[in-house]
Design brief:
With about 250 residues, the protein is an alpha/beta fold. The chain contains 9 helices and 10 strands. The chain folds into 2 domains: about 130 residues, Periplasmic binding protein-like II (D-Maltodextrin-Binding Protein, domain 2), CATH 3.40.190; about 110 residues, Periplasmic binding protein-like II (D-Maltodextrin-Binding Protein, domain 2), CATH 3.40.190. Helix content is about 35%, strand content about 20%. The strands form 2 sheets. The protein has a 5-stranded mixed sheet, with helices on both faces. Strands 7-6-8-5-9 form a 5-stranded mixed sheet.
Length: about 250
Amino acid sequence: MKKIMMIYLLSLILLGAKEIKIAVAANVSYAIHPLIQAFHQSHPEIQVQPILGSSGKLTAQIQHGSPVGLFLSANMKYPDALYAKGDAVTKPVIYAEGALALLSVKEQDFSKGLALLQEKKIHKIAIANPKTAPYGVAAKEALKRAKLYEILKPKFVYGESISQTVTYTTKAADIGLIAKSSLFSPQMRQFKEGVNWSEVDSSLYTPIAQGMVILKEGKDNPEIKAFYDFMLGEKAKEILHTFGYKIP
């Protein structure tokens, strides 16, 4: 009898389930599923489908009518632009601050900081494309402030998003400039701080304030608003913190 009741209640939930689509910057791809799982505990009737990609490409898709109701960007530039053009209905808010890290599959002397990248044994450096990925912008800025950008440019292997850059770093390059958040995913926890990775000096780049907006597609949508509110709540902040983000 209990099993029948549980099946009945589950069927009611499934029949009443409402799906929302959200655009999610690639650096958040490592945290988004734990976030959705936590959200689902309090909102089992709402199914969340994340659309992942670089912030630049996601913005272009949104401007061309992509049916997503919420945008979690890797910076404030793209949400600000969408809001200014009327493609977003809420003023952008910061939900997290990201950080850059150096990662190498092989053991490295990270005490040298970015100067490590000049060593002869470093032939390929993975970096996110600054034209589409905010973490690429931050990496470029850090290298320029360290007066290394022009020297190292011939070594760069560009990823279109930070997740692709992580793949290049672990598969094709000697080292990479990646989002610190990626290092806290289950598949990356084998890499040890000080041995395989180190955070980049944050004084070398502008803080990576990550912005969120409700889009026109999500206007007056209670399910979108519920996820928006969740992302600004304590549980989401707790999860984001475990993935290496700073919480504003």
